[in-house]
Amino acid sequence: MLKLTSTSEDRTREIGRCIGALAREGTVIALNGELGAGKTVLAKGIAQGLGVQDDVISPSYVLMNIYPGRLNLYHFDFYRLENEEELLELGLEEYFYGDGVVVVEWADKFPGILPAKRLEIEMKKSPEDPDSSRDLYVQLQGSLRLFSLKELEKRCCL
Ligand SMILES: Nc1ncnc2c1ncn2[C@@H]1O[C@H](COP(=O)(O)OP(=O)(O)O)[C@@H](O)[C@H]1O
Ligand SMILES: [Mg+2]
Hints:
By secondary structure, the protein is an alpha/beta fold. Helix content is 28%, strand content 25%.
């Protein structure tokens, strides 16, 4: 488990850029944490790191947005999702086990549907500075060789 503390929105975006730059085909990133924790900010950074040119917006009303980049980004948000059916109708296998990078906000609402191998990031408002600081707890689930925490630490904790 890697703990990173971000003291600003810009820094969270930068951490996202590092993650996006390191992500490979098939990397699935589950983002958890309360409303306002910074999941969408991090997702925007990940998109930048993937070379996505389009503006990334919160997909909470549409369930998923697709952005072309170095690799396709599939950006999900389970916040308003009431059951897994809707996801299955989308044909999520194609995305979850495909050749792009998947970011899922509120992933822990439907943990059963996520691939076993994933990068899991829990975001929390830092108790000592909840207005502008966030603690990020980053860990790998399954034997994910598609992502290196060591590399992330090296790049992100300069
Ligand atoms: N260190 C930080 N990292 C990310 N967001 C921060 C930080 N400090 C303050 N914020 C604010 O917190 C909010 C995060 O919003 P958002 O990314 O939409 O959250 P979520 O998607 O988790 O609901 C934004 O208003 C942002 O300006
Ligand atoms: Mg969000």
